[in-house]
Amino acid sequence: MGALGSVIAVVFGIFWTVSAASMGAPISFSIFGVLFVIVGIVQVVYNFKNAAGKKRYSAFDIVDGEDEPDPLNQRFGGQPPEAGDTSGPEGPLRYCPYCGAKLGDSYTFCGHCGKRLPDVQEEDHP
């Protein structure tokens, strides 16, 4: 949405500058349009770099970047998802919901991130 607003600002700035210059308005009116064009171009560059960068800025992050990684980085960043069967000889494997580390059946805390794990026994027995 930010990139679209930036493109609209650039188009408006060009329209404003041409209109102000053709009407014979003072130079300050034309400079106002040029300012819109410059701000719009800066915003387009910023939004493109933010959308294509590895560590994107988000004003509405609800978790820490270490707790929950960016899904686009997981998909396009180079770490392939783990494939394979989730059941082993001792039964189904458990994973930490916070960091994704493999867990044993009797673990209460994650050995990787140290967070308390949700109680799975309640989910297994309805």
Task: Characterise the protein shown here.
The protein has helices spanning 2-23, 27-52, 71-76, 121-124, and strands spanning 87-88, 91-92, 94-95, 102-103. It has 126 residues and is mostly helical. It has a domain at 2-52. The protein has a two-stranded antiparallel ribbon. Strands 3-4 form a two-stranded antiparallel ribbon. The model is unreliable at 122-126 (pLDDT under 50).
Keywords:
mainly alpha; 4 strands
Query: What is the overall silhouette?
Result: rod-shaped
Number of helices: 4
Q: Which value, in Å, is the CA radius of gyration?
A: 26 Å
Can you write the helix and strand succession as a string?
A: HHHEEEEH
The termini sit apart by 45 Å
Brief synopsis:
The chain is mainly alpha-helical and 126 residues long.
SSE blueprint:
Elements lengths: L1 H22 L3 H26 L18 H6 L10 E2 L2 E2 L1 E2 L6 E2 L17 H4 L2
Antiparallel strand pairs: 1-2, 3-4
Helix pairs in contact: 1-2
